[in-house]
From TrEMBL:
SUPFAM superfamilies: S-adenosyl-L-methionine-dependent methyltransferases. The keyword Transferase applies. It holds the Pfam family Methyltransf_25. Gene3D superfamilies: Vaccinia Virus protein VP39. It comes from Actinacidiphila alni. GO terms for molecular function: methyltransferase activity. The keyword Transferase applies. One of its GO terms (biological process) is methylation. InterPro entries: Methyltransf_25, SAM-dependent_MTases_sf. This is Methyltransferase domain-containing protein.
Amino acid sequence: MPEMSRAAAAVWSDADFVTAWLDADPQGERDLLALPRLMAARIVAETTPRPQLIVDVAGGAGKFLGVMLDAFPAARGVWLDASPTMLDRARIDLARFGPRVSFTVGDMTELRAAGVPGGADVIVTSRASHHLDRTELHGFYREAAGLTAPGGWLVNLDHIGPAEVWDTRYRSVRKQFGAYRPSAPSHHHNYPLPSVDDHLDGLRAAGADELDIAWKAFYTCLFMGRLPQG
Ligand SMILES: C[S@@+](CC[C@H](N)C(=O)[O-])C[C@H]1O[C@@H](n2cnc3c(N)ncnc32)[C@H](O)[C@@H]1O
């Protein structure tokens, strides 16, 4: 496991930290990321109305996978995360999907070794890849693309590191929006986080040829890339 990935995964093995983080994570109407998750599902449906296999990498409690499996009732899901505490929570929160979901504990930089099957129609990940450096991020996209079917999607909803001038603006303005949560337990990040270009370059290098930032608010972007149909 690469060093930055190991350091990121370590904090999520602390059950008290994970429980506090989950308790502070906005739910329902306060969850600003509900929109980009749903947008991702609807955009995928435009090209791929009946995906069979959807993988959620670093899936946490399974919010993104839950939205995808609701949108695509014929799909089965694979959940992967490094945290045993998240596994316990995901088993509860995704229980309504029954045998449609399989669970794998493993590292996001070693998807094959963790047993993620090939031929996925969609691989999603959210709020995790910002722990990787540019090289690791590109490696992640490369491996994920290798596990994705022709015409399939790579979807990443994550926080980016903007240019300094934008960082200052965002920091000041987002305080005015109540939905941000200073109460959330903080954890270590290696700044600067990967930039928009780090993501787009990585997706492009992994072979995605239909790329866009489908949604963005402050630091958080919904990156979507589709692989060629072969
Ligand atoms: C901020 S949470 C986000 C969870 C979920 N994706 C979401 O958006 O609700 C970050 C997740 O990434 C997982 N994680 C961090 N580093 C990881 C790694 N190297 N491999 C796999 N999972 C990792 C953590 O265990 C945690 O569940």
